[in-house]
Amino acid sequence: MMRSLFSGVSGLKSHQTRMDVIGNNIANVNTTGYKSKKLNFSDMLYQTTQAASGPSNNVGGINPRQIGLGVKTAAINTTITQEGATQSTGNPFDLKLTGEAFFVVSDGTNTYYTRDGSFDVDKAGNLCMASTGYIVKGWPADDEGRIIDGAVSNLNVMAKNSYDAAATTKASASGMIDATDTNLETKNGKIMNLQVLDNKGYEYNLQFGILPQKTTTSGTRDIHNSETEYALKNTIYKVDASKLEYSYPVGTENRILSSTDSPDLITALDKAVWASVSAGAATGGVTSMTYTNPGDTNNTMKITINADFLNNNNLDLLQYSELMGRELTVSFSGDTGYVTTTTGAPPTYPLGSDVTVNKIKDDAVAFFYNAGTTANGVTTYTVKPANAYVTTIKQDYEDDGGNAITDYIFRGSATGTPTTGPVDGATGTDMTDAINARDLYDDIMKVIKLGSQNNVKPAYITKEPKDTTSVNPGKYTISLLGMSSEGEPIDISSLLNNGTTSWTLAYNKDNGTFDYVGEAGSKEFNLALSTIDTKFSNVSIDMSDTSNQFNEGKSSITAEKDDGYKAGTMKGVSIANDGIITANYSNGMSLVLGQICVATFANSMGLQNEGDNLYSETANSGDCQTVDIKASGTGYMTTGVLEMSNVDLSQEFTDMITTQRGFQANSRIITTSDTLLEELVNLKR
After folding, report:
1. Are 647 and 28 in contact (CB under 8 A)?
2. What one-character DSSP code corresponds to residue 296?
3. What pLDDT, in 10s, does the model give residues 56-86?
4. Cα 207 to the center of its chain, rounded Å
């Protein structure tokens, strides 16, 4: 038989194998992470018909004569180092590896390696392959989010579904304190608020006040005094100065008697009403009365207009015939006033035209007089013995700010000289610079002038201590003013009584940059909130980012917490390009749950395909090295995308053509060899 027949057969077999490899590549053109295979041919053994001989002195050397026995498959290599194209999926658990590393997965018994990063999360929270359910391996993290070095294990991305609350321990202030800010001159100064949290996540508002530090210098100021002495009336009377109104019903309408239309009738009615008040009983046409105190608007009276009333008051019967027999209701306006009399007896109604009713506030009268009995609509007031004589002292001076101030002092005396002691006698202090005295000054003077002026003392000047203050440039005091919450109020008395709640805040007086807070060299001060309740942590507040500069009269200093957070629930998971898995929570916090590891091999093309996009370790791949993808420099991960197959269709189709032609050529070897044999057989004929 001819050797060429066997060569052709080996060529057919080899090209058929190559076609199998190409077909598999094309079939996996859309397989995630698939690596194309390349088949290499090698020639088979040779039959040597003449061995080679070396040259001699007279004859040259002869090459060996060999006849090949065909072709065989030499190797099937995987293009493991060539990356496939990137396909975006938007799934945060889909990962693509850049570099030559592999994901490590396990079925619980065996460990496999894959470039397929199509992962999902199972019911138990394990990160696993979406296709097989094999669990992804990596390094877990502790409760603080620190990666635990050591052997790789299953990765669980739902290990911590909630994030516990934590108390605030650090805060920082920023912005400017403008020395021209008018808020710095208020009682509490410029207010700075800071929100902090306790260990249960409840929020509290700390309020600080910032005030300029000042130096006080002692001195004196001139007080310009003007004194006048008065002898008060022993008795004054409170009378009813009400305006009277008369009404009567006509059907469903209530009519008011007009003084313009009936002035003479109104005069007669007023006379009858006041006569009844003075008598303490109904008289002169007044049919009924209820009268309690002067100025009481509840006082009521009824008065009947009849012929006798009109005749007694010389009123025309015909003119007022419509009112004949009607009972009028009398209303009192409630006005009161104070009067004096020369007889020392209470006045009677109606008050004479020579009686002056003084409108004075009751509070001003109470400084000097005691209220007595009320009879016939008149209340008698008697002067307090200690205030029979009153000296008024008017004092004019400038306050510490250079503003003109006027104070009033009222001193009472039983004898007139000397005038010592306050007007009220009970408090033991002069009525000086008191708000009520300022508001009632005009009324107080009305009461005093009901009496008589005794003498006027010449004006004189006295001196009193005066403290002059000056601002220390760049120096401020920051103090805790209070603490509140949306829930129950917080009692900070323990902190105010036992802790430090005020600190010096110093800036460079030349350029306004921060110098220190509390003491030289310190950039932060500590607020011992734990003394209030153990649920709080002490808070250190960094002031180094503040300055003391001009800001158009408005200080912009604010403070914010640097840590502390409320409790939160897991809202999502993200994977970084180094494989770090981070949980994100509703309170804005995040926590590292673990890190995906990768495997590298000395000869990754030596890995064995196991199907399902999986590889296993072989004797020629080398041992698996489990590493951190970024730290080892082997590449990085990309989330939301997958690595596609690296099959190049144009190359595969080209290889298919050459394979087909090779197969055809080898078949021609067989047919041609067959023809030769046929000719040889035909020789026998």
Report:
1. yes
2. -
3. 888 888 888 877 777 888 888 888 888 888 8
4. 14
Task: Say how far residue 505 (Cα) sits from the centre of its chain.
Answer: 25
Contact between 376 and 279 under an 8 Å Cβ cutoff? The reply is yes
Q: Across-strand partners of 362?
A: none
pTM of the model: 0.54
Q: Nearest to residue 86, comparing CAs of 645, 651, 652, 647?
A: 645
Angle between the N-to-C axes of helices 649-682 and 3-27, in degrees from 0 to 180, rounded to the nearest 10: 160
Find out whether 35 and 643 touch, Cβ atoms under 8 Å. Answer: no
Structure tokens that stand for 658 in this block:
């050459």
Instruction: Name, in order, each residue with C-beta under 8 angstroms of 674's C-beta and a sequence gap of 6 or more.
Output: 5
CB 189 within 8 A of CB 211: yes
pLDDT in tens, 167-201: 999 999 999 999 999 999 999 999 999 999 999 99
CB count within 10 Å of CB 227 equals 18
| β strands within 260-319, DSSP E | 286-290, 300-305
Rounded Cα distance, 241 and 117, in Å? 100
Amino acid at 129: M
Please give the span between the terminal C-alpha atoms of the chain, in angstroms, as a whole number.
Answer: 19
Position 234, amino acid: N
Q: What is the DSSP letter of 660?
A: H
User: Facing residues of 112 across strands?
Assistant: 105
Among residues 344, 371, 394, the alpha carbon closest in space to that of 233 is found at: 344
Q: Residues 487, 489, 495, CA angle at the centre, nearest 5°? A: 135
Q: Which amino acid is at 316?
A: D
pLDDT tens per residue, range 579-618: 999 999 998 899 999 999 999 999 988 999 999 999 999 9
DSSP 356: P
φ/ψ of residue 30, rounded to 5: -115, 15
What is the distance, to the nearest Å, from the Cα of residue 130 to the centroid of all Cα atoms in its chain?
Answer: 42
Pairing mode, strands 580-585 and 568-575: antiparallel
Question: Is residue 351 very low, low, confident or very high in pLDDT (cuts 50, 70, 90)?
Answer: confident
What gap in Å lies between CA 524 and CA 536, rounded to an integer?
Answer: 19
C-alpha closest to that of 258 among 246, 241, 273, 270: 246
Between the alpha carbon of residue 600 and those of residues 102, 129, 348, the distances in Å are: 7, 19, 119
DSSP 661-682: HHHHHHHHHHHHHHHHHHHHHH
